[in-house]
Design a protein that fits this description.
The chain contains three helices and five strands, in the order ααβββββα. The protein is α+β, with helices and mostly antiparallel strands and 95 residues long. The strands form two sheets. A three-stranded antiparallel β-sheet has the order 1-2-5. The protein has a two-stranded antiparallel sheet with strand order 3-4. One of its GO terms (molecular function) is DNA binding.
């Protein structure tokens, strides 16, 4: 498995793909990231065509165990961010 692409590498690739400078590509990436963050933290979902859907899911209160001590305790209800991968992306990865 190769290393993940860094933000700098992503901005450079985006700038090349858009035929623009890195500053504009970085601003576009930051704007998209901000939009996704606001929408998902507000309880909504964002679909990135060809990539997948990012959404927030609520988990109920539950009993969990500390693996170091074996002690069980109640964990409060919380929210987690999930992503469902698009079929097009899965198909392209699997050949």
């Amino acid at each position: 498995m190769s290393k993940p692409m860094t933000k700098t590498q992503l901005v450079a690739a985006l700038a090349e793909e858009m035929d623009t400078d890195k500053k504009s590509a970085g601003a576009a990436l930051d704007a998209i990231t901000g939009l996704i963050t606001r929408e998902v933290s507000g309880g909504g979902a964002v679909t990135l065509p060809g990539v997948g859907k990012i959404y927030c899911r609520e988990r109920p209160e539950r009993m969990v165990r500390n693996p170091a001590t074996g002690e069980q305790f109640k964990k409060e209800a919380d929210k987690v961010v999930k992503m469902t991968i698009a079929k097009a992306l899965k198909d392209s990865v699997n050949g």
